[in-house]
Amino acid sequence: VMDVYGVVEVLKGNLRRASSVLAHWCHSSLLERKPKPMSPEDFEAVHKANVGVKLMGMTDDGKELHKLLKDSSEALKVSKVSANWKAYVDFANNIIIEGYVAAMTVSMQYVCELLGPAQIQKNEFTQPLFDIKLELVERDVIFEPAFSAERGLLTLRSVIDGWLR
Question: What domain of life does the UniProt record list for this protein's source (predicted)?
Fold first, then answer.
C-alpha cells in the first residue's frame, strides 16, 4: 500500500509542477505595450525580441515538462509501449495543450483590450500605440505606414497580423 501511495504522490506532484509551469505562461501577454508611441518598425523589433525571450523560456519549460513525464514513467515502472502509459501520456499532453491555449488566450485578450474602443474610451489619457505620419500630397492623404496591405511593405495591418501569428 505504501508503494502505491508513493507512486501516486510522485504522479500528483509531477502534475502539480506541470500545472504550475503552464500557469506561469499565463502571467503576461506575449505582446507588451510601451508607455510612449513608437514607429511600427521599432514596435515590431521590440515585439520580436520580447516574443523570442518568452519562447526561449517556454522551450526551457518544455524540457522540464518532458523531465516530469520521464520521472512519472520511472515511478510507475511501466513499459513505454503499454496502453496504460500511452493513455497517461495522452492525458498529460492534453493538460499541456490546455496550457498553450490559455497562454494564447491571455495574449489575444490583451490585444482585444488594447485595440478595443471601450478600453480606449475608458482611459482617455492613453497614448497612441504607434507614431503615424499623415502627409498631404497634392490632393491625396498619405499615411505612413499605410493602413492597407501592400506587398513587401510594413503596414499597420501587417504588424497586427504579425501579432496574431
Answer: Eukaryota
DSSP 150: -
**Cα–Cα dist 3/5, whole Å:** 5
Kindly write down the DSSP assignment for every residue of 29-86, as one continuous string: -S----SS-B-HHHHHHHHHHHHHHHHHHHHHHHHHHHHHHHHHHHHHT--TTSHHHH
Residue 68 has pLDDT above 80, yes or no: yes
CA–CA distance, 41 with 47 (Å, rounded to integer): 10
**85, 4 Cβ separation under 8 angstroms:** no
- Cα–chain-centroid distance for residue 67? 22
pTM of the predicted structure, to 2 decimals: 0.74
Average pLDDT over residues 50-54: 92
Q: Note the pLDDT tens digit of each residue in 119-136.
A: 777 776 677 777 788 888
126: DSSP letter: P
Instruction: Kindly compute the dihedral angle of the four CA atoms of residues 26, 31, 34, 35, in this order, to the nearest 10 degrees.
Output: -60
For residues 132 and 145, the answer to whether their CB atoms sit within 8 Å is: yes
